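Hi V.,

Quick status before I head out on leave. The structure for the redesign project is tokenized and pasted below; the design run finished overnight.
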């Protein structure tokens, strides 16, 4: 049985579309169909039920995919074992949330360029929700982001936790004042996109007074949020490492608010049935990079895993 044929079954099981699978594997839909039929004939089973609109995996197909993933993963381990790191080739499609991009991403890319010079990286920076949607659709291979909840289809490895603090334009509140959540609601809150982990945490943090007394603007762009804070439009809760320049120049101030907002854990996330070793490689490099970056910050700001 051909390894590439197994990979085709796994890919079709993920995407549930002959067209999308063909585009992903750079072959024709007819070739996809031919590979599936070859395995079905060889094994004497039916892998997929398909009609003009839908592709549904059968119970036999589910069992086959579980075994095929293990076989292909072992094949990758075997072939990688006979190759030097610098011989790793191909492309990794990497999704990165904006709060990771400025501080961590350059170091990750430098390590990849040095240790794996023949590996091409295709980058997408977007909201965490959108990146996970792209991962589930096999449009990305790996995401560096925030895990909202456990998902049986995804594998994840933590790489650091960032402290989250309320930030405002300097002068909006008395210098050194001890504040409480209700004090923040004297101005609008620049909140995270609806459905995100930290959007829910903001609502939990304020409780009932958030909807009764607060005004919220929603942003899925870190750059936009920072610009709105600098303009004095409102306050937001951010990892201070993403506004270091604004804090050094005095344009923004970290507020002393009690209780402290909960920190945010970040993960390397990929599909559990991925047959590539690339996600584990990215996880190793990301954790290594996070440990190096963390040396420049106190542990209330950055905690490496």
């Amino acid at each position: 049985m051909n390894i590439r044929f197994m990979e085709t079954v796994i890919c079709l099981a993920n995407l549930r579309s002959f067209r999308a699978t063909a585009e992903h594997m750079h072959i024709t839909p007819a070739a996809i169909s031919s590979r599936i039929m070859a395995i079905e004939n060889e094994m004497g089973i039916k892998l997929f039920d398909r009609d003009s609109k839908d592709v549904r995996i059968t119970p036999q197909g589910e069992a086959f995919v579980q075994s095929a993933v293990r076989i292909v993963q072992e094949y990758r381990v075997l072939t990688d074992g006979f190759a030097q790191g610098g011989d790793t080739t191909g492309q990794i499609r990497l999704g990165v949330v904006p709060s990771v991009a400025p501080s961590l991403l350059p170091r990750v890319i430098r390590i990849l360029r040095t240790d794996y010079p023949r590996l091409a990286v295709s980058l997408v920076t977007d909201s965490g929700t959108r990146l996970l949607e792209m991962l589930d659709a096999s449009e990305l291979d790996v995401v560096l982001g925030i895990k909202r909840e456990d998902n049986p289809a995804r594998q994840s490895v933590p790489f650091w936790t960032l402290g989250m603090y309320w930030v405002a334009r300097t002068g909006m509140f008395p210098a050194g004042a001890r504040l409480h959540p209700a004090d923040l609601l004297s101005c609008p809150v620049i909140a995270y996109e609806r459905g995100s982990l930290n959007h829910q945490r903001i609502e939990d943090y304020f409780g009932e007074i958030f909807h009764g007394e607060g005004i919220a603007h929603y942003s899925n762009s870190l750059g936009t949020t920072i610009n709105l804070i600098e303009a004095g439009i409102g306050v937001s809760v951010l990892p201070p490492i993403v506004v270091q320049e604004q804090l050094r120049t005095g344009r923004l101030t970290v507020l002393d608010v009690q209780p402290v907002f909960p920190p945010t854990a970040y993960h390397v996330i990929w599909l559990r049935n991925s047959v590539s070793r690339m996600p584990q490689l990215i996880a190793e490099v990301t954790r290594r990079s996070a440990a190096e970056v963390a040396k420049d910050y106190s542990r209330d700001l950055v905690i490496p895993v």
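Above is the designed sequence. Residues 59-81 form the longest helix (23 residues).

G. will cover questions while I'm gone.

Best,
W.
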